[in-house]
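Preliminary data (for renewal application), S-adenosyl-L-homocysteine complex.
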Amino acid sequence: MTQSLLQKATTEHTLTQDEIISLLSCVNPWELFKAADQIRKQYVGDGVYLRGLIEFSSYCKNDCMYCGLRRSNVQAQRYRLSPQQIIEMARKAVSYGYKTVVLQSGEDLWFDADKMCHILREIKKLDIAITLSIGEKTREEYAAYHQAGADRYLLRIETTNQALYEKLDPAMFWQNRVRCLHDLKELGYEVGSGSLVGLPGQTLDDLAQDLLFFKQLPVDMAGIGPFIPHPHTPLAEEKVQGHFELSLKMMAIMRLLLPDINIPATTAMETLHPQGRLLALQCGANVVMPNVTEGDYRKKYELYPGKICTGESPSQCRGCIQSKIESIGRFVSASKGFHGDFLKGK
Ligand code: SAH
Ligand code: SF4
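Predicted structure:
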């Protein structure tokens, strides 16, 4: 059964919802992982794209039940970098060899469109690709950021189960999240989305639906993160058992369905398994997003507990990840890593 599904997925890059569920529930996923690794090699090569992650504000106006930065978490440590500090961190990232920076934060209204555009314009002068991950905005704001230099945008759908999404993200509307993704796509961004795997109440049907949603959009990037309960949230007592393997399966199937997209080996994977990112890179992933935030801030940006490398400096992270990547026979790509670059010979 698994063999014939894999045969179909590797040649046609399509699967029905039931077929995806069957792969997600397979007891021995090694054939699936092997197939995803081969398709990864064929469509995006052995190069790994590094994106330097700058976590620039831990303030958030939203209250997502799963997230340590939710506004109701009074124990969260809040900080906000100044535009100058953000630009300086981007400059340092370039000096470590990064070709892309990802600017990520909670939904912090202090950073209005004028401030964001100023930051983007300054960073763009460094001739790198810029990814934003700052949540739901109006179409006009997205247009202004794109004009100011943002090339890519990461906005996970989290789950395509609308009822579950609206239960876990109070006062947020699933349709608005979808509207954001469509606006971003129409405005010419490379769009990244993704799911949280293991949310309470989430089913394999929901996860299969997530993959079909990414295929339909279609996304240029997709990050799959295991849900890790945060002690200062309403979901503190939820379990984490099984989320790691299920996330690997999600990543592998995504590689088969969307063979040439960029798939990060997410940091949360390494929180659950000491070799989490390397295993992900061998099950379909081709991107890593090392942290380039400096000093104490990276500890304070606590979406989930047990975040890795909070005591390391950006240059240590850069060296560490490069040797890990080389230890599995891969290399750090010198390209900016746009969708499809490998097939275009870039
Ligand atoms: N505020 C922006 C970007 C920061 S949050 C946004 O929400 O889009 C980035 C991602 O962190 C979210 O998309 C979510 O999938 C992930 N995240 C939040 N809480 C988490 C948890 N407890 N475990 C794992 N990932 C989590
Ligand atoms: Fe805010 Fe993003 Fe966390 Fe939701 S997931 S509370 S929007 S930082």
